[in-house]
Structures are given as structure tokens and as C-alpha cells.
Amino acid sequence: MGPGQAVGLSALAASSGAYSLMMGAFLLARARARAQRQPPSRAPRVSVFKPLAGVDDDLESNLESFAKLDYPSFELLLAVASTADAAYPVAKAFVERHPKVDVRVVVTDPHATKNPKVAQLVALERVATGSVFVISDSNVRVSPKYLETLIEQLEGENVGLVTSLFVGTGEKSLGAALENLQIGAYVAPSIAASALLAPRPFTVGKSMAMWRRDIAKMGGFRSIGDVLAEDHLLGRKVAEQGLEIRLSLDAVENRNVSCSVRRTLERHTRWAKMRRVISPTGFALEPLGSPLTIATAFVGLSPGGLSYAALVSTWLLQMLGTSVALRTLRGRVPWRILALEPLRCYVTLWCWMHACVSKRVSWRGHPIVLGKDSRIVTLAERREARAKDAKDRGPWSTRLRRAFANVA
């Protein structure tokens, strides 16, 4: 066995071990959650924040699921940045269909913060009446017991935030199938594993619950308005207050029905870039989470019987893991979805490689550059900063003279 093969096998062993650990922790976390389930002892009033921007897949049906919530006291606040937004008539029609539901549409100021979603949260925070805030994205669909399961976790001693596991559903296009497969085969298991193995679970903005008093202590939602990964920073701020973050294992549905492959690539590339600026070390190690990807590289670098056998073995391992994860989260899953697992791995690798060479993203039509912790830097701000830096340093001749002077 040559040095190249030894390195390849070592990388494969590390990757397969990490993948198996993630899947095992995911299943154990789900089993523990079922065993420890009990109804909450109280029912504080809840304000559900729904930031809307455009008409996401199945928006009407997603909103309808919130009209069926089985919880004694809650209000539903639907935010739009403009009455010209396509989501506005959908939201108004929902309100008219449900006169018995405590729901209203709030037109927000899109310029309140750099992050347009947080700008909506800032406006909703001012008009909310609940002692608990629940943030739920527009492409999320929930069960009638959704609020009850969140409050069950939130009322624990010293708990400051509860985030929900989520699973992609509804695929009718290749792009949507890849999106939902990525969520179910990797994202959801890794989030569940983090709740069991990491100091605190990942906080995901798809669905989060928190006490109003704790948000006020950290300066309100405006304090997280200058970053793109507002959910990550919110989790950090909660942890800095000495509060616990919990994960609700009752998964909500993230509806992805008809998006294109291009949109899926753009979305996951953007998320990869955010992970890069938030946790560079974790980002660098991400390819190890896919044994099939490592085995494919092994074949490319050292083709032969050993690497081909490793490729087949890792393919079987990931097909098994994907099947178990999706069946645990969704029940029966068509084989045509499972068969996309190799393609999903290579698409994910492409997004990761693209994120390695660029921090520029497009967010709702606005090009921005990501700074540390996903700070939003507009292109104008970046040009201004570069111009100031060049002015401070002076021309090349001056910088060279300074350099030689320092050496001397």
C-alpha cells in the first residue's frame, strides 16, 4: 500500500466514522425526545412572527396550518415590507378567511436594519402582545400541537431559546428534490446530533421560540440587524446571557415544491458562505461529513480495486443512512428521491468549493459581501473601505520605503 492509499483510507475512516456518529446521535436524540415528552404546565400568550417576502411554495397552505393551531392564547402577525409585495394579497385573504383567529397584517419599514427579515422582526416586536415570541418562516408548515411542543421545551429552567428541527417536503422538481434531500439526509441529522454532542445546538431561523424579556435584555431584534445569519447571532446572544438553548425534535415542514436546480445551488452556496465566515474551521471540515465524496476523491487520486471497493462501500453506507433519516422524519420516501443521494453529495461539494473562493452573495436581489460572523457589507461600503485603506497606506513607493525602513 502506497502513501497515497494510506492517506485516502485514513480520510475515509475518519469520514465514515463522523457520518456514522452523526446518524447514531440523530436517532438517539429522536428516541430520547419521544421518551421525555410531556405537556407544558402553563400556556403563556404567544406572538407568532411570520416575515413574508414574495409568494413562497404553498404559502396559502402554510398559513392555513397556523389557523389550526391547538393553543389557548396566541396571535399571528404577518409582516410585509410593502403593499406591493406579492405576499400582501395572500396575507389579506388569509385574514378575511379567518375572522376568529387573532391575526393581522403589519406593513414594516424595510430600511430599519440591513437584514430585511430582521427589519420585519423589529416592527413586529413593537406591536406584539405575547410574552413569548415565535419566529416562523413563510415556507414553514406546522402541526396543531406546534406551539405546545415549543412551550414544553421553553418552560424548562433557565431555557432562553428553542429551535425546531425541520424537514423538506413537497418536491415536484429536481431542484426541490435536491433541496429536500439535503435537508433530510444531512442538515436535520446534523442539527439533531449537535443537540446531543455539542455545547449547544445550532439555532435555525425556520422556527424559533424565545421569551420576550430575554430579547429585550439583549437590545431587541435590532441588535442582530446587521448580519445575514441572524439566527446564529441570536443563539449566541442568548448563550452569552447564560441561558440554555434547546432543540424541539418535533420537526416542522419546510415546503420546497417547484424550485429550480439553479435556485437550490444559489441557496446552498449562500448558506455555505455564511458557515465559512461564522465557523471557518467547521466549514473546512465539512467535506468529511460525506464519505461518498471522500471516496470519489480517493478514486480520482488513486484508481484501483481498493478505491473502487471503498466507493461502493461508502455509497451503500450513505444510502442506508439517507433512507433511515428520511423514513424517520417523513415516513415512506420514493426510491427516486433516495437515488439522488450521490448527486446531492456532488452538488453540496460544488457549493462548498464555490464558497471557498468568494464571500459575495445576492440576498433578495441585493449584492453584498459577508464580513466576520456574516456581517452585511454593501458593495458601496466595501469600495469605500478599500479606498480609505489605500489612502491610509499611501502609494506603493511610500509603502516600500516604510517597509525598508522597518527592516533597517
Account of the 3D structure:
The model has no long low-confidence stretch (mean pLDDT 89). The chain has helices at residues 3-35, 59-67, 87-97, 116-127, 146-154, 174-197, 212-217, 230-240, 261-278, 280-285, 291-301, 305-330, 335-338, 341-356, 379-393, 396-407, and strands at 46-51, 74-80, 103-107, 132-136, 140-141, 159-169, 207-211, 244-255, 360-363, 366-370, 376-378. The protein is an alpha/beta fold and 408 residues long. The chain has an eight-stranded mixed beta sheet, with helices on both faces. The protein has a three-stranded antiparallel beta sheet with strand order 9-10-11. α6 (174-197) packs across α14 (341-356) and α11 (291-301) runs antiparallel to α12. The protein has two domains: 3-21 and 277-363, no CATH class; 36-258, Spore Coat Polysaccharide Biosynthesis Protein SpsA, Chain A (Alpha-Beta Complex). It starts with a helix and ends with a helix. α3 (87-97) links the parallel β2 and β3 (103-107). It contains 16 helices and eleven strands. Helices cover 55% and strands 16% of the residues.
